[in-house]
Amino acid sequence: MSEQPAPGAPSYGRAGPSPAAPRGAGNGGPGTGTPIGGPLLEVVDLDVRYGEARALWDVSLTVRAGETVCVVGPNGAGKSTLVNAVAGIHRAAGGRIRVAGVDTTAMPGHRVCAHGVAIVPEGRRIFPRMTVLDNLLVGAYRLPARRRHRTGLDTVYRLFPRLAERTGQLAGSLSGGEQQMLAIGRALMARPSLLLLDEPSLGLAPVLVDEVYDAITRVAADGVSVLVVEQDVERALAIADRAFLLTEGRVTASGPAAELRDSAEVRRTILGL
Fold first, then answer.
1. pLDDT of residue 37
2. Is residue 74 part of a domain?
3. C-alpha–C-alpha distance, residues 58 and 80, integer Å
C-alpha cells in the first residue's frame, strides 16, 4: 500500500522550492503572485482551564496552508497553553480546533499528530540518554513517516549539518542550540503539514537563535505551515505573515506581522514602552 501523507504535507526530498527561497516563494505568500491557501488550522472561541483557573478566553485564530503565523505576548499570557491545546496535549474546556477541516478538539496528542501536526515543545524535551539518531527516529514512529524515515533524515541533516556530524552522540551532551535543532528535526521527521514551535529562542545565544530562525524560514519555504509562539517579538514578527498579540489569555490585537511590529499596543504590552 502506498503512503498517504497528511493533508498539505510537504514533499520532502522531491522537486520543489529551494530551502533557501525567500519567505512565500513557491507556496504562496507575500511578494508572490500566488495566494496562500485556505485555512489549515482553525481555532474558534477556544477556552482552556487549569482546574478552576481559566488560561485562555475565547481565543480565535487561523493558519492558512503555506503560512507562518506568530503569537507574541508577555510571560503568562497563555502562549504555551495555546499550542499545547492545538497539539492535543491539554484538553480544551470550550471552543473548537480544526485541522484541515477535521475537528481535533477532543483528540489526544497522538491522534492530532496523525492529522499532520507536530510540536517543538518549550524546553526541547529531547531524550538525553539516547543518541541524536535515535531521537530523530522517535519522530518517525507513525507508519507513513517510518516508511520514509531515510528521506526524513536526509532532510533534517541538510537543514542542520551539525546533527549529521553528531548522529551517534548522546543528545544530552549537545549544546542548547544543538538540542533545539534536534527537537525541530525530530518534529520534522513526522512529516507534518503544520509545525508548532513553543519559544524556540528560549535560552539560546544570539548566534544560535539566528541559525534556528533561519531553519524555520527554510522549513516554511518548503511548504510547511508554521505557528510559532515567542517572547522574542522582533524575531517572530520578522518571519511571520500574520501575528496575534495574546494578553492575559485573550487576543488583544492581530493583523499582518509588519503592522504589529510597529504597533503601540505591542510595544506597551511586551516591552513596557
1. 60
2. yes
3. 16
Classify residue 18: in a domain, yes or no: no
In a domain, 217, yes or no: yes
Q: What pTM, to 2 d.p., does this model score?
A: 0.82
Residue 134 sits in which domain range?
A: 67-87+108-271
State the CATH number of the domain containing residue 113: 3.40.50.300
| Tens digit of each residue's pLDDT (9 = 90 or more) over 198-210 | 999 988 888 889 9
**Count of structural domains within the chain:** 1
Domain membership of residue 40 (yes or no) is: no
The closest alpha carbon to 191, from 144, 159, 131, belongs to 144
Grid cell 510547511 is found at 224
**149-159 and 176-188 helices cross at what angle (nearest 10)?**
150
Q: How far apart are alpha carbons 25 and 27 in whole angstroms? A: 6
Helix residue ranges per DSSP H, 47-197:
79-86, 109-113, 132-139, 143-147, 149-159, 161-165, 176-188
Q: Tell me, what's the pLDDT at 103?
A: 97
Residues 264 and 120: their CA atoms lie apart, in Å, by: 30
Phi, psi dihedral angles at 115 (to 5 degrees): -95, 15
